[in-house]
Automatic annotation (TrEMBL):
It is an enzyme of class 2 (transferase). Coiled coil: none annotated. This is Arginine N-succinyltransferase. One of its GO terms (biological process) is L-arginine catabolic process. Its EC number is 2.3.1.109. GO terms for molecular function: arginine N-succinyltransferase activity. Keywords: Acyltransferase, Arginine metabolism, Transferase. It comes from the Bacteria. It comes from Marinobacter zhejiangensis. Pfam families: AstA.
Length: 378
């Protein structure tokens, strides 16, 4: 499987993902013109010479090389909230105290805000259910950090991720159900589609402008504030391992948490390794796994390009730290469009010791141990 920038030929598959992912997936909506414009904007962003982050949007595709199947997507918004407001609720606590009556109460409130304006957002991560396999979801998530490590000038110092909140199989959100009853008589699918398409005027016009005391909300609405969709839990856990933290900001529509981290302190950014490539014939002895440190580790590897960006996962690469050289099979170097001596960057996804686990293989015969994967996260 290979990660590459999206192209116009991917439109039918992208539209299918917009249908599969459902209304809560606001970064992709089932609208032909919207998706065409999103693809073109991504193509333009990859091609742009960038010194500081602006309104660039980078959308990547996970492709099965053997079949050409479109397995999933993942993306980065370089700087959010510049052309269209990025609204959140901030969950905080206020204290009411009467000294005369000796009464004291502490209550939670939700305040609407635009706290994350100008931040970079990782988004649009969706792995199609029929393509769930070892390391597919992890590659979709971590490739964004490889790209940030390669091109830090394209991204803001703070990186956020809006996690999908709780909704049921009928695409109904308990949090939105309460807001709908009292303020905005639109169903959840409609408001998420409007917001995803950038039509956010109704938020300023109809949503409550004053603090919402959470004890006035229904029990079901309160219970999901800051909680994630069941399919998003593995993605949230992965981001938490990268150093992302929830600081009280939640989505306006489903109450899902937004998590944040400093770009250069994200684990995969900080621990990624810049190296030179040495292409080795597949049957060369140095590529045989053995007790040497680093051999057999599962690595995510990327070239250093923008428009020609390519990344994949393999356990057949060997890093020689004393020479800062990554030895890879010649076929893999060709897939990544890496010439002999070219620069690359990699991160380790898993250690080499997999003997006790069942082993699956990809289309190139590379052994990949299974692990729990996820479908989507915003």
């Amino acid at each position: 499987m290979i990660i590459r920038p999206i192209a116009h030929r991917d439109l039918p598959a992208l539209q299918q993902i917009a249908v599969e992912s459902g209304p809560g997936f606001t970064s992709l909506i089932d609208d032909h013109d919207f998706l065409v414009n999103k693809i073109q904007h991504s193509i333009d962003s990859f091609a742009r010479d960038v010194a500081t982050p602006g309104q660039e949007s980078y959308l990547f595709v996970l492709e099965d090389e053997a079949t050409g199947d479109f397995m999933g997507t993942t993306g980065i918004e370089a700087s959010v909230g510049l052309s269209s407001p990025l609204y959140h609720y901030h969950l905080s606590r206020v204290v009411h105290h009467s000294r005369e009556l000796n009464l004291f109460s502490s209550v939670e409130v939700l305040n609407m805000c635009n706290h994350y304006t100008g931040c970079t957002e990782i988004c649009t991560l969706y792995l199609r259910p029929k393509f769930r396999r070892a390391y597919a979801g992890k590659l979709l998530s971590k490739v964004r950090f490889l790209f940030m490590a390669l091109h830090p000038q394209r991204f803001a110092d703070t990186v956020i991720a809006e996690m999908r909140g709780v909704s049921n199989d009928a695409d109904e959100s308990p949090f939105w159900d309460w807001l709908r009853e009292h303020f905005v008589n639109l169903d959840f699918a409609t408001v998420t589609q409007l917001s995803g398409a950038g039509n956010k005027g109704f938020i300023a016009e109809l949503m409550p402008k004053y603090p919402l005391y959470t004890n006035l909300l229904s029990h079901d609405a309160r219970a999901v504030i800051g909680e994630v969709h069941q399919h998003t839990k593995p993605a949230l856990a992965m981001l938490e391992k990268e150093g992302f933290r929830h600081k009280g900001y939640v989505d306006l529509f489903d109450g899902g948490p937004t998590v944040e981290a400093e770009r250069d302190q994200i684990l995969s950014v900080a621990s990624s390794v810049s190296c030179r490539i040495q292409a080795i014939a597949h049957d060369t002895a140095v590529l045989n796994r053995g007790p040497v440190s680093g051999r057999g580790d599962v690595l995510a590897i990327a070239n250093t390009r923008t428009t020609g960006f390519r990344a994949t996962v393999t356990d057949q690469a060997v890093y020689l730290p004393e020479h800062n050289v990554l030895q890879v099979p010649a076929e893999l170097a060709k897939t990544l469009e890496l010439d002999e001596g070219a620069s690359a960057r990699f991160i380790r996804l898993a250690a080499a010791n997999t003997a006790s686990q069942p082993v699956s293989h990809d289309q190139q015969g590379l052994a990949l141990p299974p692990q729990k994967e996820f479908r989507y996260a915003l």
